[in-house]
Amino acid sequence: MRIAAAQTKPTRYNIEANLIDHYQMIEAAAEKGVQLIVFPEMSITGYEHSAAQELAFTETDHRLDILRELAVHHQMIIIAGAPIQIGNKLYIGSFIMKPDNSLLIYTKQYLHPGEEKFFSSSFDYDPLITLGDERISLAICADIDHIEHAENASKRGTTVYIPSIFFSPKGIPEAHELLGNYSKKYSMNILMSNFCVYSWENEAGGRSAFWNKEGELIAELANNQSGLLIIETTYENEKVETTSEIQFNS
Fold this sequence. Notes:
By secondary structure, this protein is an alpha/beta fold. The chain has helices at about 15-30, 50-55, 65-75, 145-155, 170-185; strands spanning about 1-5, 35-40, 75-85, 90-95, 105, 130, 135-140, 160-165, 190-195, 195-200, 200-205, 210, 215-220, 225-235, 240-250. Helix 5 (about 170-185) links the parallel strand 8 (about 160-165) and strand 9 (about 190-195).
């Protein structure tokens, strides 16, 4: 299994530029044989509150067309975030674009204080993704602050837990500690994707990372550089075989 965390620097209010960044990272990941790539929380728009409604995506949004085409062309699962409008409610969500051109949605289950003024939360959109023998569950940011989220993922037989987050430099050490503990406690590989530099005019902490099932931090990106963290695992003794890093200038 070869998977990648994308660490990005979103441009505020410029969805087109952010999508171009996604395309470039997906192409670079495809050259390395990546089978799944995950982007940070609301990666397409950048993290937004009051502007989220006007930036929101729907399940049939044509702005997703190229991402869906890339998923099919490269036979890759692509997980990208946005504010998502479903009916009359707005969610912080992830689009899961699959190699068969199908699309799934995950919605953030636990909101940060203040997010409830703009977003709803839901437990109704929580697909279990399969990749070969792997069973993959998603999380978005504050979800990881609630141990029951990781525990529920474990109860579903999750082998890979994938959080998309926006954590500050101050919050990243705590996020790393939490995820390391979850990986060991629930015997799950964990791949986390975070923004770097700035989003929503706030500093982002970067340090996207991977933990193995023993709770060991195998690799992480720097705090201030956009790029890809690529992980390849084999299941002889359940160990990570290789890791690699691709940096992007932006």
